[in-house]
Amino acid sequence: MKKLYPLSVLFLAVHFTFANPLINSVPGNGNWSNVSTWSLGRLPMDGDSVVIGAGKTVTITDIENLSTQFLYVKIYGVLTFSSGKLWINNGSTVIILSGGTLNGTGSSSETLRIGGVDKYVGTDGTLSGPLFANQTTSASPVGFSSGFLLPVKFISFDIARQNNDVLVQWETAEEMNNSYYELQRSDNASDWNTISHITATAAPTNTHSYSYVDRNVPHKLFYYRIREVDADGKYAITPVRALKNETGNTEITVSAGPSNLIYLHFSEQVKGSVVVRLVSSNGQTISREKFNEPVGQVTVGAQNAIKGIYVVTVADGQNLKFSKEILL
Questions:
Q1: N or C: at which end does the chain have fewer Cβ atoms within 10 angstroms?
Q2: What CATH number labels 250-327?
Q3: Strand pairing of 57-60 and 29-31?
Q4: Over pLDDT 90: what percentage of the chain?
């Protein structure tokens, strides 16, 4: 039985909406460069979905040079530049949601740069959502465009190693006016090849699960992303997921989904059966499920759980033990 390690140990990046690497701003006001500002106790890094919550302000006062790294930044609150800079790679996206703002102090040295192009400069004033900027939008002072609305809500996006193959899974909701998905792969996170086209279900009232097995993937670092294409030709691209295709260690992540669902992701197929328990803060077992040789995403229902903090444990009855707190 392979050992399972918590998220902080290994490299695999998984899950789009509800799981790590989702990193939230924690205090009402914080500096981007302070680890105490962020929910994961570290600074944003390559592959993260960065969320600045409503009523919260994050200030950039220095040079955050992440020009080779991918970030997916969602601003519900305020992102402020005060003599600072944020440089991210050309696959990155910054979204200002309704009620969110981006501003500076009026200095031309304050820049938000995507792929070497300044999308915002301090002299542009205050920008209020809904707006977005990525590699498809123009340069400052019109680096942000309006009308950004995904016709699809991504609930999850996961990758997992399965022997010599890679299992890619994603789940969506609120599919409206979308046509198909392009699954894309890259070995450098810059040049992308489409490896599959998957027709969308396009039913807005249900959740939908999709999967694809990428066969005989060489044992090297690969990146995956999904290009969602609308019926009118517009498209959106998910954050990038990275998989170091080496065997021997399996990572597990746990996250909360809608309707008291719990998502577990196994980055590599487990050889054997595991038991997953949901335990309340007073030690009561709320649910218990057994999975045989799990790989990729599995879902555990917790419909009887009330709001609160719980512990999810994964064990095989021998030497495999994993636990993580989760808020439902």
A1: N
A2: 2.60.40.3080
A3: parallel
A4: 35
Segment of 74-88, 178-192, 296-310 carrying the highest mean pLDDT: 74-88
The domain ranges of the chain are 44-146, 153-244, 250-327
Threshold 0.85, pTM exceeds: no
Architecture category of domain 153-244 in CATH: Sandwich (2.60)
Higher pLDDT, 320 or 216: 216
